[in-house]
Write a structure and sequence with these properties.
Elements (H helix, E strand, L loop, with lengths): L2 H7 L9 H17 L6 H15 L3 H17 L3 H11 L2 H15 L7 H13 L4 H11 L4
Length: 146
């Protein structure tokens, strides 16, 4: 279903993505982080839908539809390294930085900071070309007060 999109995304010199394609790729990355601990929980699904709706100004049904497409894309996407590097080459830094914030929201949706999720977020941030400092600031903004 997403074969052509993925081929375009992982080619050696990908073109910048059209807005709709960037939304889909970045939403799939949210799903990948949520699934990384082997428990794609309802809280995470709800959080992803809310993030997508707020980030892209979508209605709840449209955000749910995009999330469902992203779930399918994530299942077909290559390994995280190639997928995130492809996104880095095709999406502006500001968008990637906003995605890091959203990824932290998803990782922290269940109220537990897992070592596996931390490690994946560090890897993804690096592969997206987001500095450690910017990622840490994003995490602090998304961490609920204790």
């Amino acid at each position: 279903m997403f074969g052509e999109f993925l081929r375009k995304l992982v080619q050696p010199a990908p073109e910048p993505l059209a807005d709709a394609d960037a939304r889909l790729a970045l939403s799939a990355l949210l799903v990948r982080v949520a699934r990384s601990d082997g428990d794609y929980a309802a809280d995470e699904i709800i959080r992803i839908t809310r993030i997508i709706a707020a980030r892209y100004g979508l209605s709840k049904p449209d955000a749910e539809a995009l999330r469902q497409q992203a779930e399918h894309l994530e299942a077909e996407a290559p390994d995280t390294v190639r997928f995130t590097r492809a996104i880095k080459d095709a999406v502006a830094y500001e968008e990637r930085l906003g995605v890091i914030e959203s990824l932290w929201q998803v990782a922290l949706a269940d109220g537990v900071r897992e070592a596996d999720e931390d490690a994946l977020l560090r890897l993804v941030s690096n592969l997206l070309g987001v500095s450690d400092r910017d990622s840490a600031i994003a995490r602090q903004r998304m961490t609920p007060p204790a």
